[in-house]
Write a structure and sequence with these properties.
Chain lengths: ~375, ~350, ~375
């Protein structure tokens, strides 16, 4: 298992560098050289141009430039300086946007996976019924709906028609005037809480699995651990002075997360359904029936557990959709994340920021693949236990 | 403790009838029409006895097995007949009552048992599941483990391997574990549907011997289902021959092998070479099995039958007694010649 | 087997196929393919969703064909101020007013966004924030169904362009893009997949690592950068989407299909009969991979349309008119929150993109059940 993860990790590491190099080439292929914008400007004297060319390293051979590019990205965390908001560093701009994108992406993915898997499971189980048919039509609608249009409709409905939620943005500025906390700090604390709960829960599960052989006992303790951790985290925030501010952030996240979740949820439902239908034809399902296993247990413990494997793999292919959806969501809901930074940089022709944003989105995508691979390895004993 | 380790058959006194199948009729509804997969099949399984059902693939053997456990797909209907276990009808039970009977009373070793294991759970835990569902008392985890260990030893597996996943087992080991699982709740009847088909010949032989030994030692009642006459010959005392959803011949295994009375049994046996018997010409079985959507009138075998007479295409023959405990459904059974026979 | 082992020359010596076969070979082939088509159609038509998909595609096909026909006949004479009112880009009905260029439009009557100003600008200088510019009064006309004195049955966009005409034109653009992207993607994927499967070894490893890389690259952000820096028009976009799609996931799926074909005995037979690599690939492997390729073509169309519309919506493409641009105009002109009050601005275009994708998706799913028997009901 460790060997498998290490191998995947190595592959992904190499792929990332190939990706970065390709980005550099893309930049290099750009019509008329990136320096032309300044160097070609007739108002700049030739001496200044020369200094600029040398400072930018444009006089060096391409391969050295590529080397510098890769070096700076990986070791200096140096992505250059923004052109449109000079002299801010690109990494500064992007790293403040990163957590917001990660949050949007993670919550939408996790929620859509759970909901989609659950629905897909039920829908496949009730094949041929009216519920199945209407669920299928709904899923296909959400899966093929033109996402930007759908997002605009959601914004219009929730923010403009109902007025329950704000019109985009990350915070309501007026509420934060004179606030003792910075919005990003509160947000990071919220993310930190979620990360900590997940981590502690993971460790607790590991300990429980090591200390008990009985599946039923294990399940009960898993549940106990989850609920008590959630309770502690909830209590911490309920008594914290930051809770109104955290509430404001959550209020702003609701519609974007819901929109992104709905669309991805449909994809997972469709995938789970076909995976379940294939699994239900397997011999071991017939064995379980012959064993007199109750139908609900067959569905949940025998069929769905196996149907989850291909769904996890396909999530990787679905990732492109989530990322595309994320970029569009950020744009429509004015959510200050990586996607919006990327689009803003494109409009302002701010090449360093655009490249940096693309590289970071690439890293996110790579990490998501790695997580999906590791999850798969955990779920499938044929990989987890080398025979 | 000792009680939980005891592996036995919960059937009654040896020789008394245990499972009675009477005039069973089962249809599959398809888009093209009704397929009569099992037509008027009757047989009895006695306590402590091993019987066999043999026939080409698609002749309804597996459908009979699935009907006994009521595991049929949604598009099937039991049109008539009855299945009695210890005198109690299984057809009349509701789904929940039937679910409780499965594995407890009738367990099954499946066709292609290689794939009968759920790949994501340990072998031991899958047997444990059956114990939890059907063992009359609640067992402790350790008691369950001990019983699974005892079952593993009985079928020739190392108890340590119960911690393994199915992919870590070889085909033969998986098959042995399937047998262990079938025995886990001390059933009254075991149905073995093509128990060794996917295995290579040597492993096949080992497993059959093992099964026969267990059956005789525990006095277990087993129904073997196979397309392979050699398998049936090795392990059963009585056998039935099925053709196109019908039982065409029923008798003691020795009798049927030495003196088949139905033309189909005759051709089936003649098309199998005997290694130990005298050299003889093999008679090929020509033609295709009939389409059950629209079975031939009269005897279903008559289009392929070399001994067919006029009556065969118009009237359906019923089972008639032709010897002691040997009955056959054929109008012209007297004409069927003797074959070399099989030396056991 | 004996037949296969005989060298082909000996076997065919003095053997005239036409002497045995009464019919010419092409007619037998035609009959066989007709028979398999009928069989597959029976399976396909079992799935009602697939039929719905075909109907949707047919409807859009009619729409795409209708636009040039209508422009040449019924719509020809509707001139106002020297312009045809059905012209997709600029209608003649618009009123020109002076607007201030701002970063974010709050009042579409007096303000205009920088991007939109760039479209309107004379091209000499990039419009600056705070400047003023002569622009059409952004004021969409509602639809009037009578169509006698008011010719716009689906209303007009903020610039006075006829929505119905734009919608029909958009169907044409969608088909063009979908066809280019799907064909190039699947042709490439089939080739890459079969070559990787057939030759194996280093070629396989290289192609599959490339596929891994392509899958890992986030497509839309990459295309955002590309279309932000380059001048990307429809054909170019179609090829870009096709190449990136064809080297990735589809190639891997088609490779596994090609692998399962490669190990079949008839490939060995063809090799023993003296078939060269290229002949075996083109005559024996590819025909057996094609059904699956065709299936992925349907899904490729769905993906391509989404990508195009999303990029158009973001205002990054240099194309004449598409459904995505219709939504973009409504959005950038500040009608986002008007929602269904000005429904004709976004609803027709949004629904068209959705239905168009759904049509191909449904056909793809129905074909999946034909190609992949494990998904069938029984």
């Amino acid at each position: 298992m460790l060997k498998y993860i290490a191998k995947r990790f190595g592959q992904i590491f190499i792929l990332f560098y190939v990706f970065l190099a390709l980005l550099f080439l893309l930049l290099d292929l750009q019509p008329g050289d990136i320096s032309q914008q300044f160097v070609g400007n007739p108002n700049i004297p030739p001496e200044a141009k020369e200094i600029m060319v040398r400072q930018l390293g444009l006089d060096q051979p391409k391969i050295v430039q590529l080397g510098n590019h890769l070096w700076n990205y990986s070791f200096g965390m140096d992505m250059g300086v923004s052109w449109s908001s000079y002299p801010r560093e690109v990494s500064d701009i992007l790293f403040s946007a990163l957590p917001r994108t990660v949050f949007l992406f993670l919550t939408a993915t996790v929620m859509s996976f759970w909901l989609g898997f659950y629905t897909g499971k039920l829908v496949a189980w009730r094949r041929g019924t009216f519920i199945e048919k209407s669920a299928m039509v709904t899923s296909i609608f959400f899966w093929t709906v033109f996402y930007p249009w759908f997002a605009i409709l959601m914004l219009w409905f929730f923010a403009s028609q109902l007025g329950w939620f704000p019109i985009g943005k990350f915070i309501s500025v007026e509420k934060w005037i004179g606030a003792p906390y910075a919005a990003d700090d509160v947000f990071m604390l919220m993310l930190g809480t979620i990360a900590l709960v997940t981590l502690v829960y993971g460790v607790a599960r590991y300990v429980i699995d090591r200390s008990s052989d009985d599946p039923q006992t294990r399940r009960n303790f898993h549940r106990l651990a989850l609920w008590s951790l959630a309770g502690i985290a909830g209590a911490f925030w309920a008594f914290s002075a930051r809770r109104t501010y955290a509430g404001d952030i959550l209020w702003h996240t609701f519609v974007p997360v819901l929109t992104l979740t709905l669309v991805n949820f449909a994809g997972t439902t469709l995938l789970t359904r076909s995976s379940m239908l294939e699994t239900l034809r397997e011999d071991y399902i017939l064995t379980a029936r012959a064993k007199g296993v109750p139908e609900r247990t067959i569905r949940d413990r025998h069929a769905a557990r196996n149907a989850m494997l291909p769904v996890t793999t396909s999530l990787v292919l679905q990732l492109a959709v989530v990322i595309a959806g994320g970029v569009i969501t950020e744009q429509i809901f004015s959510w200050p994340g990586l996607g919006r930074a990327l689009l803003g940089a494109i409009t302002a022709e701010d090449i360093p920021v655009a490249m940096g944003a693309l590289a970071l989105i690439g890293i996110l995508s790579l990490l998501a693949h790695l997580v999906a691979d590791i999850t798969y390895a955990f779920l499938d004993p044929r990989i987890r236990v080398q025979g | 403790m000792a009680q939980t380790l005891h592996i036995e058959s919960r059937g009654g006194r040896v020789g008394t009838p245990l499972l009675e199948v009477q005039n069973l009729v089962m249809h599959y509804g398809t888009k093209e029409g009704e397929v009569s997969a099992v037509d008027n099949v009757s047989f009895t399984l006695n306590n402590g006895e091993a019987i066999g059902l043999v026939g080409e693939s698609g002749c309804g053997k597996t459908s009979v097995a699935l009907t006994l456990l009521r595991l049929l797909p949604d598009n099937s209907v039991i049109k008539g007949g009855d299945i009695k276990l210890d005198g109690e009808s299984l057809i009349d039970l509701d789904e929940e009552q039937m679910r409780r009977r499965r594995w407890r009373d009738i367990s099954m070793v499946f066709q292609g048992a290689m794939n009968s294991w759920n790949p994501v759970y340990r072998i031991g835990d899958q047997i444990r599941e059956a114990l939890r569902l059907h063992w009359p008392e609640t067992l402790t985890y350790q008691e369950e483990t001990d019983r699974i260990g005892a079952l593993f030893e009985l079928v020739g597996l190392n108890p340590v391997t119960m911690e393994r996943y199915p992919h870590e087992f070889s085909g033969g080991m998986r098959q042995r574990a399937v047998i262990a699982m079938a025995l886990s709740c001390n059933p009254k009847v075991i149905i073995a549907d093509e128990p060794t088909t996917a295995l290579d010949v040597i492993v096949q032989d080992q497993i059959l011997r093992e099964l026969k030994k267990i059956q005789q030692e525990l006095g277990m009642s087993i129904i073997y289902i196979s397309h392979d006459i050699a398998v049936i010959a090795e392990v059963t005392e009585r056998m039935g021959v099925m053709y196109a959803g019908k039982l065409v011949e029923l008798g003691s295994t020795l009798e049927v092998f030495h003196r088949p009375r139905h033309p189909y049994s005759y051709l089936l046996l003649s098309s199998t070479p005997s290694i130990t018997g005298p050299r003889r010409k093999l008679a090929p079985l020509e033609g295709e099995p009939p389409n059950l959507l629209n079975p031939p009138t009269g005897c279903r075998f008559h289009p392929r039958c070399p001994f067919a007479i006029d009556k065969c295409s118009s009237e359906e023959p019923g089972l008639v007694e032709v010897g002691e405990g040997h009955s056959v459904a054929c109008w012209n059974w007297q004409e069927v010649p003797e074959i070399g026979g099989l030396q056991k | 087997m004996a037949d296969i082992l005989t060298p082909p020359t000996e076997r065919l010596d003095g053997f005239d196929p036409s002497a045995v076969l009464e019919e010419p070979l092409w007619r037998i082939r035609l009959r066989l393919s007709w028979r398999s088509f009928r069989k597959n159609w029976a399976l396909f038509s079992d799935n009602k969703m697939g039929i719905v998909g075909i109907l949707i595609i047919a409807l859009f096909g009619i729409m795409a064909l209708a636009h040039p026909v209508l422009m040449a006949t019924v719509w020809q004479d509707h001139l106002e101020g020297g312009k045809n009112v059905y012209d997709i880009r600029a209608g003649a009905d618009s009123i020109i007013v002076t607007k201030t260029i701002v970063e974010e439009v709050t009042d579409p009557v007096t303000q205009i966004s920088q991007i939109e100003a760039m479209f309107l600008g004379t091209g000499v200088s990039i419009p600056e924030i705070g400047d003023t510019i002569e622009a059409p009064l952004a004021n969409p006309a509602p639809p009037v169904l009578s169509g006698v004195d008011h010719p716009h049955i689906l209303g007009t966009d903020p610039f006075g362009g006829d929505v119905f005409s734009q919608l029909l034109f958009g169907a044409r653009a969608a088909f063009l893009l979908g066809a280019i992207a799907a064909l190039s993607s699947v042709a490439l994927a089939t080739l890459v997949g079969t070559i990787a499967a057939y030759f194996g070894g280093v070629i396989d490893t290289l192609l599959m690592r490339l596929a891994d890389l392509v899958i890992l690259i986030p497509l839309l952000p990459l295309l955002i950068v590309v279309s932000g820096f380059w001048n990307v028009e429809l054909t170019m976009l179609g090829i870009l989407i096709g190449v990136l799609g064809g080297l990735g996931g589809t190639a891997i799926i088609l490779k596994s299909q090609a692998l399962s074909v490669k190990v079949k005995p008839f490939i060995d037979a063809a090799r023993i009969a003296g078939g060269g690599h290229w002949r075996i690939i083109t005559r024996h492997i590819i025909p057996n991979v094609l059904p699956l390729s065709f299936l992925y073509m349907m899904f490729a169309v769905t993906g391509a349309i989404f990508t195009e519309a999303a990029l158009s919506f973001l205002g990054l493409l240099n194309i004449q008119q598409s459904w995505g641009i219709m939504i973009n105009i409504a959005h950038t002109q500040g009608y986002t929150l008007e929602g269904l009050d000005v429904w004709w601005l976004m609803l027709p275009a949004g629904l068209s993109i959705t239905l168009f994708s759904a049509g191909f998706f449904l056909v793809g799913r129905a074909m999946d059940e034909v190609v992949n028997p494990r998904l069938r009901k029984r």
